[in-house]
Each structure stands twice: as C-alpha cells, then as structure tokens.
Amino acid sequence: MNFNFRLFVRQIGYSLTRSKGTPARLTPKRVAILLFFFPVFTILKLSSWLGFAWDDIFYKKYQQQKLAQPVFIIGNPRSGTTYLHRLMAKDEINFSYIRMWEVIFAPSVSQRKFLWFFKKIDDALGGKFQGWLLNQEKKTWLSNPMHKIGLLEPEEDESILFNIWETIFTTVVFPHPDLVRKYAYFDKQMPLFRRRKIMQFYRSCLRRHLFARNSDKKFLSKNPTFCPKVGSLYEFFPDAKIIYLVRNPLETIPSIISWMSYEWKQFSDPLENYLFQDYLLELAKEWYEYPLERFSQAPADSYAIIRYDDLMQNPGQIVTDIYKKFAFELTPEFEKTLNEANQRAACYKSKHNYSLRKMGLSKKRILKTFDFVFKRFGFNTR
After folding, report:
1. Which residues make beta-bridge pairs with 307?
2. What is the reported pTM?
3. What is the rounded distance in angstroms from the CA atom of residue 354 to the CA atom of residue 361?
4. Is 12 domain-assigned?
5. 382 inside domain
6. Is residue 326 part of a domain?
C-alpha cells in the first residue's frame, strides 16, 4: 500500500502551524472537525487496507479481471458530468459503476462480500438497519444542495484514491491548495513513477469492483478531476472511451467557486464567502485546455466532446449519438429511459443563481482568461 504519508503529514503540519489567516484557521469548529475526522478516517482506512490485503490472499483472480472499453466522463466541475453519468448508469445492461457506499465503506472485494452478507441478514430482519442508515443520510452533509449525494447513488471513483492519499480531493479537508497543485496538472507535473503507481492502484480498484460483481460489463466512470489525467487514461486503458463535457465559462466559473466554497466550509471555518478564486480559475483553464490538447493526438473514435447546453436541452439525442459513435448497444428499455429524460429536460430550470459581482469577479477577466473556449465553441459572451 503506497500511502502518501509525506503529503498527509505536511497537510497536518500546515493545519497546526500555518493555519492563521487561512480558511483552515483553528477555530473551535475546525478543531472539532479535525478531532472527528482523524479517528473516523483511521478506522475506515485500516478497514480498507485489511480488505485489500485479504483480496490478495483470497480473491487473487481479480488481478486478471478484464476491463473492456471503460467509459470515462470528464469535464470541469459543474459541466453536467454528474447528470450524464447518472443518466447512462441507468443502462445496467451495458454498464457497471461504483456507488457512494462502495467508495466509502467497501473499495475492496472482501469488504463488499462482508457487507452483502450483512445485508442478507438485515433483509431477513426486515431491513431495519438499512432504513435507519438511509434516514440518517438525509440529515447529514450528504444532502448537498448543489450536488445530490447518496449512498446508493453512482459517484465519482476518484475518492477511492483517499485510500492511498493521492487525490486533489484532500484539499477539501486540508485547504492548502499549493500542497496538491501537481494533481491539478497530473500528466504534466506528477513524477512518472508516482503517476503510474497511482494509476495502477486505481485500475486495480476497478478490477476489484467488476470481479466482486462477477461482471463483464463496461465500467462507467465520472470524474471532473480526470481532466488532467487524459494521457494516463489512454495509457492504462488503451481502449477507453472518453466523454468530455464543456460549458460556457461565464456559467461554469461562478458555479465552481460557489460549489467549492460550500465544500470547504463543511470542513473549515473561513471568514470569506468565496475561496481561492485565482486557484480555481487557473485550475479550470487547464482543465478546459488539456483534454482538448490531448484529444488532438488521439483516435477520433476514442472520445466525444459534448456541449452542456446540448445535453441539457436534448439528453436523449446526445446519449443516442454517443452510443452510435462508440458502437454501444442501445436497448429498447434504455431508449424509453432517454425519452423520459427528454420530457424532464423540457421542464428543467436550474435553481442555482450566481453573481459575479458578489464574488468579486469581473466578466472581462473570464472572457479574457477563457477566450479560446469562447472562440472554439461559440459560447454566448453576453
């Protein structure tokens, strides 16, 4: 287990000695969060590591599990990746995907087997524990107003990398972005040997997932944080299909800032309302540019570029086009699901509104920073 203790220790050190004047200032709320986080994290990770060790003893065949044509949905956060992921996840004939409970409690085969056994016992007793757990879920931070999260929902599998502490997501708990900057430029800045160790671990987790479910389906993944990993995806999954979603920066950028500020406030006690704006602008610019740069070197049938507005206005047709391009089977059952998605799309209206002025951002700055995006995709600049 190649846990990144160096990063973990540095982040703890920054939290204890360099927190003054940062969103992670040591207020009573922040101290309480840290005191809660460390024991819970330790228990979960020890359980996962034990599960991984048992897999290598009792379920070694997972290492030969095939990963045929995995599908990776990427794009800047707030670009429709979650919507497309959950829509395509309804096609359970073609796809298998990781749910939140597997990310948090059971990334290993052994843990899944144990929890499925426990579920059978609970089912026999009337499912009382499962009902209680789902009820508690509604009362916690899992009820994110900007991103619906649930234990049974399809979720980003990037979070599996918490098990080796090799993910940009660690900055949510420890808001010191400079310590995780290399993850934002993964293919370009992460040392080769480390990049490969991370991707090998990630691939092993996907194999564990399919092996545990005895599945030969295509793995369906959604991770905005994979925008800087497009080259690594092609290296470790040569027959991968990548779907890249792109949205007007005038909508994406304030939405990213609002969403990430909400996430940081769950684990910290900042004085500001909108955090790390320069960092998020820099990150978003790279995540617009790099996938497009990398696609120009890839086979045309290995990727699809989708505009957010097109997806939200006509999701059924967009998904149908994706299936045709990648030669996926479109079943009558899933066609019905897509027709229903089109009907809902006609009535959809976002509940989230963002003010650039309140954030201290100028429209001119966004237009200048993302000029290449507006020109390439013809987004409205007004």
Report:
1. 246
2. 0.94
3. 11
4. yes
5. no
6. yes
CATH number, domain at 281?
A: 3.40.50.300
Number of other residues whose CB lies within 10 A of the CB of residue 224: 21
Tokens of 109: 């085969």
Contact assessment for residue 72 and residue 242, using Cβ atoms and an 8 Å cutoff: yes
* C-alpha dist (Å) from residue 277 to 202, 206, 280, 360, 372: 30, 33, 5, 9, 20
Token pair in block for residue 197: 């160790």
Reading across the β-sheet that carries 241-246, which strands appear in turn? Answer: 95-96, 218-222, 71-75, 241-246, 303-307
Q: What is the reported pLDDT for 232? A: 98
Counting every residue written for the chain, the total comes to 382
The residues with which 97 forms a beta bridge, in sequence order, are none
Give pLDDT, residue 137: 75
Residues 374 and 367 sit within 8 Å (Cβ to Cβ): yes
pLDDT tens, position by position, 259-268: 999 999 999 9
Asked if 51 and 106 touch (Cβ cutoff 8 Å), the reply is: yes
Rounded CA-CA distance 226/152 in Å is 22
CB 30 within 8 A of CB 22: no
With respect to residue 190, please indicate whether it lies within any of the assigned structural domains: yes
Task: Give the integer Cα–Cα distance in Å for 246 and 67.
Answer: 27
Q: Which domain, by its residues, includes 307?
A: 5-377
Using DSSP's 3-state secondary structure scheme, residue 71 falls into strand
Domains identified in the chain, total number: 1
Burial 364-374 (b: 16+ CB within 10 A, else e): eebeebbeebb
Kindly report the backbone phi and psi dihedral angles of residue 96, in degrees, each rounded to the nearest multiple of 5, phi listed first.
-125, 150
CA distance 382 to 376: 16
